[in-house]
Amino acid sequence: MCGRGALPPLRLTRDTCAEPWRAGRCRCVVGEVSAGAGTLGEWRRGGSTVTGQGVSAVRRRRPPTPSPSPSRRQGVLVPSAPPARPVSRHQRWNVHRLPRADGRTFLVTGGNAGIGYFVAEQLAGTGATVVLGSRDPAKGEAAMATLRSRVPGARVRHLRLDLADLASLKTAVDTAVDTLGLDRLDAVVHNAGVALDDPPRRETADGNEVMFGTNHLGHFALTGWLAPLLRAAEAGRVVTVGSFAAKSERLDLNDLQSRHDYRPKRTYGRSKLAQMYFAAELDRRLRAADSTVRSVMAHPGGALDSLTPSRPPVHVRSLGTRLRGLPAGLVVQGKDAGAWPVVRAVLDPEAAGGQLWGPRVFGLRGRPRPEPVAAYLTDPEADAGTVAAHLWDASCERTGADPGLGLT
Ligand SMILES: NC(=O)c1ccc[n+]([C@@H]2O[C@H](COP(=O)([O-])OP(=O)(O)OC[C@H]3O[C@@H](n4cnc5c(N)ncnc54)[C@H](OP(=O)(O)O)[C@@H]3O)[C@@H](O)[C@H]2O)c1
């Protein structure tokens, strides 16, 4: 993550850049890339020449609160999400002492690594059953073993799940029902994600651009297959993991698959934006249908491998990596902390549909709090409903999903 902000001078290197995903595979998703070898950007005090739109957006301490008034679309009065409440109302949430969730079941896509692993570990500590969705059975097994060593008595299962293979998703959910014995799902966390660094543009076997196809379409289709399980829970939740990378992008409805304009960082940011449009639209539809299911958004801020505690063999951090990553800890955080807003969106009874949860400090690090949702996602005057509805229709077409996704 690059750009300039009102923060102490700090060089962000390939290892310390936010949104790194894997050590050594850094992505500059927000701002400019500077020319220095291995140097992706620099924070400067003052910030009179902000270059990264996303950074300037997350630096605003008090962005305008979204209107609480109802919106009207297609002749139907659709209630908006409640505005984010003041932070002080949420200070009692303790990320290290989570409420118990015995008897509940959560599915975390990409639960075998990164933020998803820590979401799973933290949820497992509440007594809940946690299903790790992973495309690689060996990684899934390794993550389960690690998680059990950290959380004695953890109820954890693995489900083979490849979001880039749309045809496999129904089979995966059938397996969850038949083999894992799932009869309801209290929350699915749409966490898995792929971000490519370089051209050329690549496609999934289904003919979708890889990032749009995996991050958005895969989760869109999965939601439809999981609908009966989510409806069977007392208050099911769909928790979508967005990104500040989405803030600096706009969807091109005529080029959702980035056929004409493929730039890896842009396409990644747009895939995350598509996920957030989906989550906001799902919330509107669930409310209009008076559903018991909620759609909640969360984002991890900036979460680096170099600031993440070791969980061998899932993640191993050497002393050198740890020391090199220390300065970045002033600005961003580890993936364990990146999981906090996501976990809160899953567990907090006060987390309402349509809300966005993120880290407290500049939206980059710290304890979770509700953030204002950008107007372009919710405001009818900003055509939010039109864009979201178009994306929804296009997603149904590409995935073959039922227009109501089985939820509305
Ligand atoms: N890290 C950040 O600073 C940051 C910031 C904003 C948003 N996010 C979001 O947070 C989420 C997690 O990021 P992360 O940093 O933890 O990434 P990560 O460490 O690279 O983990 C990504 C996870 O997604 C899985 N995955 C990728 N493609 C998949 C597919 N086709 N089917 C199933 N699973 C697949 C990966 O599985 P494999 O191990 O098999 O590859 C892995 O478990 C992503 O949605 C990302 O967009 C991250």
TrEMBL record:
Pfam families in the cross-refs: adh_short
Database matches in Gene3D superfamilies: NAD(P)-binding Rossmann-like Domain (3.40.50.720)
Annotated pathway: Steroid biosynthesis; zymosterol biosynthesis; zymosterol from lanosterol: step 5/6
Region described as Disordered: spans on this chain: 44-90
GO molecular function: 3-beta-hydroxysteroid 3-dehydrogenase (NADP+) activity
InterPro entries according to UniProt: Ergosterol_Biosynth_ERG27 (IPR051593), NAD(P)-bd_dom_sf (IPR036291), SDR_fam (IPR002347)
Name of this chain's protein: 3beta-hydroxysteroid 3-dehydrogenase
Organism: Streptomyces daliensis
